[in-house]
Amino acid sequence: MSSQGPIRVAGVQFDPKLGAVTQNRATMSHYLQVAAQAGARLVVFPECALTGYGFESKEAAFPFAETIDGPSTRSIAEDCARLNVHAVFGLLERDGDRIFNACALVGSGGLVACYRKIHLPYLGVDRFMAPGDGPFAVEEVDGLRIGMHICYDGSFPESGRVLSLLGADLLVLPTNWPTHSECAAEHMIATRAMENNVYAMAVNRVGEESGFRFIGSSSIVDPAGRKIATAGPDEPEVLYADVDPARARQKRLVRVPGLHEIDRMADRRPGFYGVIVRPNEGG
Predict the structure, then answer these.
(1) Which of 47, 66, 93, 209 is an active site residue?
(2) Is 183 a catalytic residue?
(3) Residue extents of the structural domains in the chain
(4) Active-site residue 251, yes or no?
(5) What is the mean pLDDT of the chain?
(6) What is the mean predicted confidence (pLDDT) over 210-219?
């Protein structure tokens, strides 16, 4: 990637098969090549792209979980080295007897970073996962600052705001949105982009699994909240956009000089937000 000018990113909306790690990894390898040939330098896959999502117990999921620097990250890193790209993909991460719903950022040199999902809904494999135990963080990939979070995390505005305050140019949200998530797909990702003046991309899956239908509708959004790439609700698809880090870093928006100027970072009033960080009752 060049740190000068726009950077092409790609989101791969596809249908991972439950427990079919080898098959899913081969599918991801194929799409990495497709995206790289189209000029993408960062390729993002859905939540649990490697494993599928609809496991019925921790015991059922455990055989498909891997250590974060395991065979799948190494295999995908080899693809990245061959194609000169970086990839973000969802997996189940094994750490001792715990499993995390995680996503990995890998490149030609191997694993760059891992994020463990902090907010867990009562749904699918998340019912049995350990909650993420690390802070939000931003990783720089050759000039593009990436903030990773996963699916339900996006429902909490604090997630995107923290990543933006840490310097993210692009919020990356691998998802597994099923039916009843249409409002999130339509409005939430655009709102997170607009309220933080960053690019954002939600990369969802399609298909049916364990009684759920997943709604696709992946999108890439610019800092004004405008969708610049979208996918349909039912079919595998690769979507592309060119993102300009400089635009995401220009937080002061001058609509009418001297009359209408806003900066959603500088204009914050953190002293009034204390209730946000009060612990929930019971922990």
Answers:
(1) 47
(2) no
(3) 7-253
(4) no
(5) 96
(6) 97
